[in-house]
Amino acid sequence: MFKRWCTALALALALTGITGLGTAQAAEPGKRVFNAMQIIFSPDQPDRFCTIGAVGTDNHQRKIAVSAGHCLLPSKYSDREIPENVAPVYDRKDAAFGPIGYVRYYKDPEGSQTGHVTKDYMIIELVPQVTLSSQGPYLKQTGELKVPGGAVSPNALSPALDNERLLATAGNEIITSGQSGVWYGTVMGNTHGVYQSLALNKKGDSGGPAIWHVPGTELPSQANGFQASGPWAGITKAITLQWPPFTYTSSANILADLRAREAATPGGVYGAGFEVTTNP
Are the beta carbons of 274 and 178 closer than 8 angstroms? Predict the structure, then answer.
């Protein structure tokens, strides 16, 4: 069984899709970007949104945000680096600021929302003017999850790094943040690095944050303002017909695939070496 603590947020539920070129100016200096920020791909479609799962920098010191690949429709740009500014990303609550970044890579194999596809993620290069923050509305991310000696992500090179290893089932909990507030639940399934849990998500939460509940730390509750902290463990993926129905792409899968792609194309992969920001 899972436990839940949540606060109600009156937000519309919607699917997401890609749109055309962006012409707005970059966001004003100092605009804060954080986990669980809702994002859109056109100011004209505010109800077609996804969510940011983590923000930080890559090994080229580019400002990066991670979300779900299936947030964009398949196109000639999928599964390749996108240096062109053809897919702008906006803060759903403040689209007037202009693009906070541009999609540089996304992977959405057919069936990724219903199957256990290991590479359902998106890399967004944020504009230089924004400020990164590790603190979302409810979750503070304290680096990346590392699992010494754990099972290896199917996307990992050999030898795998500790941040490319997976959580074991039954003995670990994840905490998630989305439209319905904060939820937590045991990792009850792990298929090729896609976690199954009773921690709830909804359409539009895709790409949103999941952290590992560090044993001995507080779970979110009314007493602590529904706040929690822990290392980034993955992003919201989908609701399936399996049990438990809520799935999350592990951070291990994303980081391992980034490193593998960087090894094949040195210096050419946005997001490679991604590290969660330490900025408050």
Answer: no
Strands 32-33 and 101-107: unpaired
pLDDT in tens, 11-39: 222 223 333 333 334 444 579 999 999 99
CB atoms within 10 A of CB 217: 12
- Structure tokens, 242: 């399996």
> What's the confidence (pLDDT) of residue 96?
97
Of residues 139, 134, 133, 135, the one with CA closest to residue 226? 139
Question: What pTM, to 2 d.p., does this model score?
Answer: 0.88
Cβ distance 5 to 220 under 8 Å? yes
Parse the chain into domains and list their residue ranges. Answer: 139-251
Q: Rounded to whole angstroms, how far apart are CA atoms 190 and 186? A: 11
Lowest mean pLDDT among 22-31, 92-101, 149-158: 22-31
**Strand locations in the chain (E):** 3-4, 32-33, 38-40, 49-51, 54-57, 63-67, 88-91, 101-107, 121-126, 131-132, 139-144, 173-178, 181-191, 194-197, 209-212, 228-239, 246-250, 275-276
Integer CA distances (angstroms), 12 to 40, 53, 92, in order:
13, 19, 12
Phi, psi of 107 (to 5 degrees): -130, 120
Question: Is the CB of residue 236 less than 8 Å from the CB of residue 53?
Answer: yes
Q: For domain 139-251, say whether CATH 2.40.10 is its number.
A: yes
Q: Specify whether the CB–CB gap between 250 and 234 falls below 8 A.
A: yes
